[in-house]
């Protein structure tokens, strides 16, 4: 087992923040995790799982052993009368999986094109875009329990998916028995996702509920677009609105869209008639965090080298380059200033989406 020391993490986080891992293990296969569990030196040490680094803010060097997930492989595992079950290694890039499924003639993931990050990170925050969330296509996953040194399988219910949320984001209860896992049980810091299986139904329907996509369909004058066409539209829409992390460092949406009660929403509408809001199936109302931040005048502003993206106020960006990059501290200072002004004006607390380390 090769543990690398003092490894620069700047290439491994899409914000491009300068930080180092005191120790890093590349996990290219399940056997690497078994070797880790068998190694007494690392048993009690804290560990930090790193996927594509597209949803983290590093506020300093990482002292925990970084597990860099590099398990590869994509295959059609099973074909039933109704669906294809596709399996991918945690270290594959999510967008590559979306493209590969379409190349195989398997539609269903096209709305999730161009989301940065790896396959293994996708269930952690239940990635979603343009009317589809990972949970809508999820079948099951394999994970490794760092506490017991065993592999286990979770289905969708056990993952406890929510809006940008899952069991993997919540703290683990010490020593709890996974086989009796109740809903809401936390696996953060304990489970390492190694493979993910998705169910792609043969009865495919285009998902065009999201306004930007429907508008595009009308412009193009297409009645019933194919999956490949939706993939291309989603890529275009994202490229026009969201910064490419290989050019401008960022971690996608920095805050979750907050949810309020219909009463709270009516109060806010009375004061701010233009507020962008969406009624949810559970009766709550989701507000567009980007709109709230924009309304507070933050779009295009900077604090030090941390900036608010000009075309989408929900995205914080790195205005530095190379060794002169933004620090995690600067990003969090900007994030807190935004939270304060949104709270003072609207009485709403914004919750960050990325993991702050
Ligand atoms: N808006 C503004 N000003 C802004 C930004 C947005 O007024 O600066 C308004 C827009 O005009 C629009 C509304 O806010 O009416 C919503 O904006 P948008 O359609 O861009 O979507 P979003 O709610 O900001 C969410 C996800 C994205 C996902 C898109 C498309 C969250 C936190 N973000 O963004 O996910 O791609 O919808 O489905 O739910 C991510 O999680 O990293 C991410 C990019």
How does this structure look, described?
The chain has 357 residues and is α+β, with helices and mostly antiparallel strands. It has nine helices and 20 strands. It has helices at 30-38, 40-43, 94-103, 156-159, 211-220, 227-241, 262-271, 289-295, 328-346; strands at residues 3-8, 20-27, 47-50, 56-57, 65-69, 74-79, 83-89, 128-129, 132-133, 138-145, 150-155, 191-201, 250-253, 259-260, 277-279, 285-287, 302-303, 306-308, 315-318, 355-356. The strands form six sheets. The chain has a five-stranded antiparallel beta sheet with strand order 6-7-12-10-11, sandwiched between helices. Strand 6 and strand 7 form a beta hairpin. The structure holds uridine-diphosphate-2(N-acetylglucosaminyl) butyric acid. Uridine-diphosphate-2(N-acetylglucosaminyl) butyric acid (EPU) is lined by residues 129-130, 210, 212, 241-242, 252-253, 256-257, 276, 288, 290-291, 294, 299, 312-314, 353.
